[in-house]
């Protein structure tokens, strides 16, 4: 077919065409030359010759079009590109969502809070249904739940004669012609929603009795649409009157018009081994298979946590430069030698972490977690000692006077022999005492101040505050923490101590601005509190045991549960328990402590108890976590099922602290098997973190005490009980990003910044980074 010659001719034509395209097709002489060249050489290629008709009269721009088309033809034998219908307008994430729905449906989007294209793309499915292969009627099993696609043959509404029930019955058949009856009870409106001849996707329970019935729980019209069948189908959180099919169409349209998107993870994505953003968005809504869904979920969870960690770090003022302390090996040795006991391994490890932080020029921001009695105070004393050795002052702030006093005594015990002077500052001290203490702090005569929020009152000043220790953080607002920090000229190092065992994942999200150290080991010699869960009917045994303990000169806590956040009711419950116990144990000296007492009186009652003025304290949960009552050996908790496991674990930490054996008796009010099983975790374990993890798994994070923090977005995809690993990675990346680009101004961080802003707006923060 003369193909060799044709090939040659193509070559001879292509070279000048390519050159001319490159040169811009301007030179009139060349233009004329080309015209005759094509005329002569392109005889076997009539299409090319046709393209060149009127070539010389065209503008350079139009000539370039001709050249491109001719080159395409010659190179690939392809026809010239057809003039295309203009592509649909692309949408940006910030564009209004109403572009995605027909006018009559736009209201639905705003009803769901979907205002922008981003909102729609991030409206993640609640769950999925695998409709890749729907079973036929023939394979339905009696009593099982099933989803299948059927065609409606006929419909009717029947009233049952006896009970007057309204039953919608729809006869339908599957693709193979097998028939079944769809049944709805007492939903007569269904009748008008089902059209004869329509295709439905129906989910329900199967009954094979004579014919096949399906008791429908969920159905969708639009079975013919590929978004709703033949694939893994997303099920969205919806409202009455908003169909799944509508949501699927809207999201699908958003994906079509907005993708591909700039990836917020930009240059970091590959190193993290995560799916591309656009791909992840596609598969979170319309997963190709389980594997794709898993990758999408991982990727988008990572984003969720990254934004959370970035927000936490930015809220805390970013990564602040602080002071850099000197740490000498000899000082560490001196401190250890002065202690009456060897450190636990956990203490030694955490002290090393703290020493490193304090040496670094960055501000230390560390959360020290450890069960009651794990020896946090020693660790705090060590940090305060290092600061003092550097000529700086330290402050320890506690939530109550009784705790502040206790810390004062302990710190003095550890630090006084090392030449560090500790000062106490309480609201209840006389003006003269206060003034003297403040004077010694201002002059720098005292190196350490221990106190309540009295420490941050007007008039208090330090000569040079270098280290702030905050005990029981969740009692203080972030504002109070900040107020303490403001008392320093240079941002001081910060150590936050907490006895609340918070699972690591939760700590990382709630205290995203803090590093976490854990004292996961108890000093030797402490025997765990013996714990027993009692069903309600054995309740009085607990009080018989209390009587025995009191006879031995020991003391007892009895806790009445908080009921529904209602102080009046709590008080009533505590009072009636108190009355009951007085009648039951007339010889026992009792007191009642409840949330309605003024703080001062609460402390007075606790102090009297500590000094042994009475034997049994009935209280709502106001008793302090860290208070040492050496003679307290028994704690009884009524309606223990109303508490979180972590909270119960904390409560039992209040007894057996003075070398005496401690007991906890948890009375289960409504003793369902499940309740008892949950409480039994406490009989089996003494590990506060394990217990907190179990709590998180069994009850969910919302119910953990002190974890409902405003200003933090709800997790849409994340699951704190499982995501510790992802959170740690996201956190590490957040820090790296902010270290390199503190205000996220670099071009590669713009998509991330936009997401951060969108998140802030969603949770009602307008502050712009
Ligand atoms: P926390 O503040 O974590 O509740 P504390 O620091 O008050 O714990 O310590 C509880 C008790 O254990 C104190 O009496 C303390 O002297 C003692 N203690 C602390 N560390 C050790 C240790 N390494 N070995 C023995 N006893 C210790
Ligand atoms: Mg303590």
From TrEMBL:
The record lists the membrane-crossing segments as none
Keywords of the record, alphabetical order, are: ATP-binding, DNA damage, DNA recombination, DNA repair, DNA-binding, Helicase, Hydrolase, Isomerase, Nucleotide-binding
Taken from the record, one Pfam family name reads RecG_wedge
Q: Which SUPFAM superfamilies match?
A: Nucleic acid-binding proteins, P-loop containing nucleoside triphosphate hydrolases
| Comp. bias (Pro residues) | 80-90
| Gene3D superfamilies in the record | Nucleic acid-binding proteins (2.40.50.140), P-loop containing nucleotide triphosphate hydrolases (3.40.50.300)
Q: State its role.
A: Plays a critical role in recombination and DNA repair. Helps process Holliday junction intermediates to mature products by catalyzing branch migration. Has replication fork regression activity, unwinds stalled or blocked replication forks to make a HJ that can be resolved. Has a DNA unwinding activity characteristic of a DNA helicase with 3'-5' polarity.
Which catalysed reactions does the entry list for this protein? Answer: Couples ATP hydrolysis with the unwinding of duplex DNA by translocating in the 3'-5' direction; ATP + H2O = ADP + phosphate + H(+)
Q: Residues annotated as region Disordered?
A: 77-105
* Source organism of the structure: Thermus brockianus
Q: Which CDD domains match?
A: DEXHc_RecG (cd17992), RecG_wedge_OBF (cd04488), SF2_C_RecG_TRCF (cd18792)
User: Which residue numbers delimit the Helicase ATP-binding domain?
Assistant: 357-519
Q: Which Enzyme Commission numbers does its entry carry?
A: 5.6.2.4
Q: Which domain of life is it from?
A: Bacteria
**Which GO molecular function terms does the record list?**
3'-5' DNA helicase activity; ATP binding; DNA binding; hydrolase activity
- Example GO biological process term? DNA recombination
Xref: InterPro entries: ATP-dep_DNA_helicase_RecG (IPR004609), DEAD/DEAH_box_helicase_dom (IPR011545), Helicase_ATP-bd (IPR014001), Helicase_C-like (IPR001650), NA-bd_OB-fold (IPR012340), P-loop_NTPase (IPR027417), RecG/Mfd (IPR047112), RecG_dom3_C (IPR045562)
* SMART domains for this protein: DEXDc, HELICc
Residues of the Helicase C-terminal domain: 538-697
Q: What class of enzyme is it?
A: isomerase
Name the UniProt record assigns to this protein: ATP-dependent DNA helicase RecG
Q: Which family does it belong to?
A: Belongs to the helicase family. RecG subfamily.
């Amino acid at each position: 077919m003369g193909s060799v010659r044709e090939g040659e001719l193509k070559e001879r034509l292509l070279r000048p065409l390519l050159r001319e395209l490159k040169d811009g097709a301007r030179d009139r002489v060349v233009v004329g030359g080309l015209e005759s060249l094509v005329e002569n050489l392109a005889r076997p290629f009539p299409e090319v010759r046709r393209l060149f008709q009127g070539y010389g009269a065209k503008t350079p721009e139009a000539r370039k079009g001709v050249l491109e088309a001719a080159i395409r033809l010659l190179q690939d034998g392809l026809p010239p590109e057809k003039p295309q219908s203009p592509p649909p307008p692309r949408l940006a994430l910030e564009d209004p969502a109403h572009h995605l729905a027909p006018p009559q449906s736009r209201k639905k989007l705003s009803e769901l809070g979907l205002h922008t294209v981003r909102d729609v793309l991030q409206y993640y499915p609640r769950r999925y249904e695998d409709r890749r292969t729907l079973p036929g009627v023939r394979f339905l099993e009696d009593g099982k739940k099933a989803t299948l696609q059927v065609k409606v043959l006929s419909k009717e509404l029947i009233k049952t004669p006896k009970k007057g029930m309204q039953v919608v019955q729809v006869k339908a058949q599957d693709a193979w012609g097998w028939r079944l009856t769809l049944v709805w009870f007492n939903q007569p409106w269904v009748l008008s929603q089902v059209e004869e001849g329509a295709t439905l996707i129906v989910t329900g329970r199967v009954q094979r009795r004579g014919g096949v019935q399906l008791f429908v729980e969920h159905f969708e019209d639009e079975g013919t649409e590929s978004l709703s069948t033949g694939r893994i189908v997303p099920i969205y959180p919806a409202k009455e009157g908003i169909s799944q099919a509508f949501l699927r169409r809207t999201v699908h349209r958003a994906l079509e018009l907005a993708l591909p998107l700039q990836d917020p993870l930009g240059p970091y994505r590959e190193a993290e081994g995560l799916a591309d953003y656009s791909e992840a968005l596609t598969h979170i809504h319309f997963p190709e298979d389980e594997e794709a869904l898993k990758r999408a979920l991982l990727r988008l969870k990572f984003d969720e946590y990254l934004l959370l960690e970035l927000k936490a770090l930015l809220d805390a003022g970013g990564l602040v430069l602080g002071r850099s302390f000197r740490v000498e090996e000899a000082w560490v040795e001196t401190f250890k030698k002065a202690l009456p006991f060897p450190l636990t391994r956990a203490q030694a490890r955490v002290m090393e972490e703290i020493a490193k932080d304090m040496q670094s020029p960055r501000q230390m921001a560390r959360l020290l977690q450890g069960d009651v009695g794990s020896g946090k105070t020693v660790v705090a004393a060590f940090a305060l000692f290092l600061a003092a050795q550097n000529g700086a002052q330290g402050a320890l702030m506690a939530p109550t006077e009784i705790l502040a006093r206790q810390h004062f005594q302990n710190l003095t015990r550890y630090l006084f022999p090392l030449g560090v002077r500790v000062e106490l500052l309480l609201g209840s001290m006389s003006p003269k005492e206060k003034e003297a203490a403040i004077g010694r702090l201002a002059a720098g005569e005292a190196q350490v101040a221990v106190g309540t929020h009295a420490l941050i009152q007007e008039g208090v000043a330090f000569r040079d505050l270098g280290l702030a220790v905050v005990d029981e953080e969740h009692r203080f607002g972030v504002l109070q923490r900040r107020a303490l920090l403001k008392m320093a000229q240079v941002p001081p190092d910060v150590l936050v101590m907490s006895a609340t065992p918070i699972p690591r994942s939760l700590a990382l999200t709630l205290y995203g601005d803090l590093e976490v150290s854990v004292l996961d080991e108890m000093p030797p010699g402490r025997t765990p509190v013996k714990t027993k869960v009692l069903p309600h009917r054995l309740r009085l045994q607990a009080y018989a045991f209390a009587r025995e303990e009191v006879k031995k000169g020991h003391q007892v806590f009895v806790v009445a549960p908080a009921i529904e956040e209602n102080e009046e009711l709590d008080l009533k419950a505590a009072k009636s328990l108190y009355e009951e116990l007085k009648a039951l144990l007339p010889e026992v000296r009792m007191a009642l402590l409840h949330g309605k007492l003024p703080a001062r009186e609460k402390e007075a009652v606790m102090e009297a108890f500590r000094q042994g003025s009475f034997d049994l304290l009935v209280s709502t949960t106001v008793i302090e976590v860290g208070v040492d009552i050496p003679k307290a050996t028994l704690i009884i908790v009524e309606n223990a099922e109303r508490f979180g496991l972590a909270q119960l674990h904390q409560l039992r930490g209040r007894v057996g602290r003075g070398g005496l054996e401690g007991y906890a008796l948890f009375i289960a009010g409504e003793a369902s098997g499940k309740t008892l099983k949950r409480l039994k975790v406490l009989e089996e374990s003494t590990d506060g973190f394990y217990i907190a993890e179990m709590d998180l798994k069994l009850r969910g994070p919302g119910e953990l005490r002190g974890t409902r923090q405003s200003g933090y977005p709800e997790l849409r995809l994340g699951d704190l009980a499982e995501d510790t690993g992802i959170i740690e990675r996201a956190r590490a990346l957040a820090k790296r990003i902010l270290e390199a680009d503190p205000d996220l101004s670099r071009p590669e961080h713009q998509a991330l910044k936009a997401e951060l802003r969108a998140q802030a707006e969603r949770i009602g923060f307008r502050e712009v980074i």
